[in-house]
Amino acid sequence: MDDILNAQARDEDDFYKLLGCDELSTTEQINTEFKLKALIAHPDKNPDDPNAAKRFAELQRARDILTDDKRRQEYDFWRRSGIAVPYSSWISMKDAMHTSMHWAVKKKKDLMLEEDPDNLTESPGDSDMNASSCTHTAIPSSCGQSRRFIPASWTREPANDILQKFRNYNL
């Protein structure tokens, strides 16, 4: 019990960092990162390094967990919870801890682009809304509920005489 209470977060428990990928990486990306790391860390490539087999086993374990959907979901739940219990200890008692951790889990990282702006359509209620009223706002909800992407636009001020001469190498 003291091991759990005094536990510190360890780098070897961060499988994404170990493989060099991200929480949003696909299975294909994870396998590619594993292959690149495995070529370098394989024990046959490092016969003089006594820790090479251990590092390679950690890479395999990370890849195995992150490429299995159910195990990856459990790992992500543990990782986002922020508790300092090592993953191996947590997984052995996850059923008992799951009910008491419902409040602790952070939301999964958001995607940068949520929708394809080319596929957006306006609802019939938005057709009477003036498009120019939405061009200067950063809040999509003020331009109608279906409008989630507002392209930014800017206009160039006319160049003054000195700037025009500078651009044309006349100064």
Automatic annotation (TrEMBL):
InterPro entries: DnaJ_domain, J_dom_sf, JDP1-like
A Pfam family hit: DnaJ
Keywords of the record: Chaperone
Composition skew (Polar residues), residue ranges: 120-139
Gene3D superfamilies in the cross-refs: DnaJ domain (1.10.287.110)
The name this protein goes by in its record: DnaJ homolog subfamily C member 12-like
Domain J positions: 14-79
Family annotation (CDD domains): DnaJ
Species in which this protein is naturally found: Acanthaster planci
GO CC term (a single one): cytoplasm
Keyword Chaperone: yes
Statement: the UniProt record of this protein carries the keyword Translocase: no
Region of interest called Disordered, as start-end residue ranges on this chain: 116-139
